[in-house]
Amino acid sequence: MRAYVGITDRDWYRFLRDRPELPEVNFWQPSGQRAFRALTPGEPFLFKLHAPHNYIVGGGFFAHFSILPVSMAWRTFEEMNGAGTYLEMRRRIEKYRRIEPRPFEDYKVGCVILAEPFFLPEDRWIPVPDDFSLNVQTGKTYDLGSANGRALWDGVFAARAPVVGRVAEIPGPTRGAPTLTTPRLGQGAFKVLVTDAYGRRCAVTGEKALPVLQAAHIRPVSQGGPHRVDNGLLLRSDVHDLFDAGYLTVTTKLVIRVSRRLKDDFDNGEPYFPYDGASLARPGREFAPPAKEFLEWHGDAVFRG
C-alpha cells in the first residue's frame, strides 16, 4: 500500500479549501505529457505546497488518470480544477509552461482525479517527512509499511480522522497503513473513466470526435444508479438523447435495439435503424462491461419497445 505526496501551489489549495462540499478534485499537471502510474485506485494522494511551505495540507483518494484537452477538463470538473474560470485555468497552465497565451490551442493536461478530497486548516498542516527532498519537482511515493510512510499516514489520520477513517485500519501499536478500498466516484471521474474505458469512441456508432461524446448512465443517479463504469456507456450526443428517451437500448447480451417508435413518433429515424441488432462495442479489458442489472432496468423501465 502506497501514498503519493504531490506538490501544488497555494492558490489551488486555498481555492479548494474554501469549497469543502466538492466530492472530487482534478489535480492537473500542466505539461500533459507524462502518465501518472504511482498509485492504484483507492490509494491516498496527499498535497504538499511549494517551498518554502513544506507541509502536507490535504489529500484525496486516487480514482483515475487521463490526459485530456483543457476544454474537456474544464467542462468535466469546472471549479473542481481549483480555478474559478476556464480563462484562469488556462492562464495557470501558461504560467507553469512559461509560454505566451495561445488562445486557439486546446492544451493537453494530465488529470489526476481524486475522490473524497480533504483540506487541512493551517494550524493542522503536517510537516513533510525528513526524507522528502526539497529538490523534488513533482512528488514522491511512500510505502505506508515503512517507518516514514507509517509516520506520515498516522499524521494525516490524526489531522483529519473523520475523513480518512473510512479506510480500514491494520491492528497494531499504531494506527497502521490503510487497506486498499474502491473510492466513491463523483460525476467527473465517472465521465472520464467511461470515456477512457470505451477508447474515446461511441459504443454504438464508433464516432471519435471527442466534443460530441458523452458518458451516459444506464440507470440514472436520480433512479438509484451509481457512478460506476459498469453503469456507463460512451455515446454520441444524439444517441445519448435517444437512449435516455427510450428510443434505443442495449440487451444483456450487448446487442443494440432501436425502437420502431422512433419512426412512429417522428416520421423519421432512418439514420439509426441500421444499428438495430448490431453489437455494442465493449470497454477495454481492464474495465468492467455494462452490468446486467442496469441493462435489464433500462430495457424494462425506459425502452419504448
What does this protein look like?
By secondary structure, this protein is of the alpha+beta class. A hairpin with a 5-residue loop joins strand 10 (248-250) and strand 11 (256-258). The protein has helices at 10-17, 70-77, 86-97, 147-159, 161-164, 187-197, 237-245, 261-266, 292-301, and strands at residues 2-8, 24-29, 44-49, 55-69, 108-119, 126-127, 139-143, 213-217, 232-236, 248-250, 256-258. It folds into two domains: 2-164, Roll (Archaeosine Trna-guanine Transglycosylase, Chain: A, domain 4); 187-301, no CATH class. The strands form three sheets. Strands 1, 2, 3, 4, 5, 6 and 7 form a seven-stranded mixed beta sheet that branches. It has nine helices and eleven strands. The chain starts with a strand and ends with a helix.
The end-to-end span amounts to 49 Å
Q: Note the beta-strand portion.
A: 15-25%
In the CATH scheme, the class of the largest domain would be Mainly Beta
**H and E string:** EHEEEHHEEEHHHEEHEEHH
Task: Enumerate the spans where pLDDT stays under 50 for 5 or more consecutive residues.
Answer: 164-174
* Coarse shape: elongated
Largest sheet: 7 strands, mixed
Q: What is the name of the CATH superfamily of the largest domain?
A: Hypothetical protein
Helix content: 25-40%
Number of domains: 2
Number of strands: 11
Radius of gyration: 22 Å
CATH topology of the largest domain: Archaeosine Trna-guanine Transglycosylase, Chain: A, domain 4
Q: List the total number of helices.
A: 9
What's the CATH architecture name of the largest domain? Roll
**Helix and strand composition category:** alpha+beta
Question: Which whole number gives the mean pLDDT?
Answer: 91
